[in-house]
Amino acid sequence: MKRLKQLRLNVPLVLGGILLAALLVVLVMPSVVDMPGAFKPRTTAEIEGKIVVPPYKPGQLGLLLGSDKQGFDVFAEVIYAARPTVAFVLIVTLARTLLSVPLGLWAGWRRGWAAKAVEGLATGIGSLPVLLLAIYATATVQTILGDEGRRWIWPALILVAVGVPRLAEQVRRLTEEMAVRPHIEAAVAAGASGWRIVWRHIYPLMRGDLLVTMTAEVGWVLLMVGQVAVFHVAFSGPIVRLPGEMAGSQMWGTMMAFARDDLRTYPWIPYPPAVALGLTIMAFHLFAEGIRQRWVRR
Amino acid sequence: MKSPLHQIGKVWLSRFLWLLVVVPLLVVALHIQTGVRWEKMEPFTLPDGRVITNAYKSVYDPTQALIQLRQFPADLLQGKILYKNSPNSIGSPFLPRLKEGWSYSFRLYAVSVGVGGLLGVLVGVLVSLRGRVLRGTSVTVSVLGLSMPDFFVVMSLQFLSSWFWVHYDLKPFLVIADPNMLKGWVVPLVGMTLFPMGYMARLTASAMEDVMQEEYIRTARSKGLHEGKVILGHALRNAIPRMLAGLPTLLNVTLSSLVVVERFTVWPGISKWFVPQQPFSDGQVWGVTPAIASVAVMLLILWFVLFDGLAHTIRIIYSPKQPEVVRA
């Protein structure tokens, strides 16, 4: 009962949890509900005796969020785009974590040149507009390699590269803080190896912090996906889908990027993916804050 | 712990070295990403039966881009970077335009950081109060400020403005920003103020929470000092060094946000020159050429590095032992 009460007071955790549960429903939906509007565009339709062409307004022809300029159902497209978006962001976050945690732990424990290298990289990347670096690197690679094939791999690598130094620096600082604790000194005196101390005595102490950081990191990567889209740089999917092509080949960022100029004329096309991105970013940040308030003790 | 002077020297030297590496790389990237040539495609049939005869495909051929890249340093040094607004125009010098755009960008940036920072401090101080409702509200405001993405806020406000206009014939604020009208400031300012507010609120709140546990606060309270005086006179003053530890991140993230918000709200700042245009099918490039984009990006990076260096210098001067907060 006491735990439930504490949870109720933790507004960010509850709000974030609700939003993440909603995201889970969206991710499951394509497997459960049939949404043909994502595959078959309605190129023309008859409304009140008149032949009309897309984009259809929300509510017209039974389309909840209307259609895009090709006649695809916007609602169905947003639902289908959830999977590639979340998958892309989770892959980037996982890669950042897998690279930065061992690097930060090693640099924090070893100190000396390793710590200086990590600090220098983090300072360098941190003192530059990372967003622009990501945009230009992605645009350059995509121009040179073309739009064919797995378009998302290079942007993913670039996003991993610009994020690893900062995360590794955070882990390094945490490691250095932990390394002066008495039980670590005792482990050193007992002759434990550096690897064992880091893995068995330091890493468990920072798991809570890492959980918060990585949850928030998903939000930061998603934010960058959205911000990059503002510059018409997309991470996945063809710009114009041909009828019958696989739905779900686009991400929310791509949908938003190429419909951005329609905001004033057909707001129902770019706005739903932006809302989906915005709410998902909020969900991860709120959940991270909730975890921090509830479980991370200093 | 190294001396503050040593730390400041290291901050500026490392940034200068990074500039030397990154700026040439970006200039090259900006030039070679426009190395596209258009070739006419063979006629093809779509799945629905339509035959397309006049399609072009882009082929990557950086020859022209590399010629422009070689010319760029000389053009920059001689002040020959010209802005052409049509293929046949002779062009006008770009630097005065850049100066005007930068002044608009800087105004928006300065006001956003100022307003956001002050509101953040206010919200952060409220967290240290004893009232539960006030405390809960300010925590929620700070968390929401940090979590709401700038593009989402801007798009929502633009959507709201259009909705009001369509349904009630009202324009509470302008969809397209106008720096000469108060209504034109609302969307970009709100979009850019939320992050500095949320970030500063969190930093202030956590610094205040630590300071409020100190002995001298208990002493001040036991002396019967008014709570407002305890918070503002004793706690806040001692929390400032910790708050300043987050200044570099605050300035950096807000500057990144400026780029996004300017693009979205069509603010007449420097962001409109950041994306070089691909050549048209006749091979011509006008408007934002790679050279113009390079100059604009160089200015932004210089601004970024200068402010980052200044923020670190202030942090080191005020609290040399306090490490930077990488992200709240």
Largest sheet of chain B: 2 strands, antiparallel
Which residues of chain A sit in consecutive blocks of at least 5 with pLDDT less than 50? 238-248
In N-to-C order, the SSE pattern of chain A is HHEEHHHHHHHHH
Low-confidence stretches of chain B: none
Instruction: Please tally the helical runs of chain B, counting DSSP H or I stretches of 4 or more residues.
Output: 10
> Residue share in helices of chain A?
55-70%
Residue fraction in strands of chain A: under 5%
Globular, elongated, flat, extended or rod-shaped: what is the shape of chain A? elongated
Oligomer: heterodimer
Number of strands of chain B: 6
Strand order of the largest sheet of chain B: 1-4
So how many helices of chain A?
A: 11
Provide the residue-averaged pLDDT of chain B: 85
Let me know the largest β-sheet of chain A. Answer: 2 strands, antiparallel
The radius of gyration of chain A is 23 Å
In terms of DSSP E residues, the strand content of chain B is 5-15%
Straight-line distance between termini of chain B: 24 Å
Can you walk through the features of this model?
The complex is a heterodimer of chains A (298) and B (328). Chain A is mainly α and 298 residues long. Helices cover 66% and strands 2% of the residues of chain A. In chain A, helix 9 runs parallel beside helix 10. The model of chain A is unreliable at 238-248 (pLDDT under 50). Chain B is built from 10 helices and 6 strands. In chain B, helix 4 (132-147) packs across helix 6 (186-211) and helix 9 runs antiparallel to helix 10. The longest helix of chain B is centred in the middle third of the chain and has 34 residues, at 94-127. In chain B, the strands form 3 sheets. A two-stranded antiparallel sheet of chain B has the order 1-4. With 328 residues, chain B is mainly alpha-helical. The chains are: A mainly alpha (298), B mainly alpha (328). The interface between A and B is large, with 56 and 58 residues.
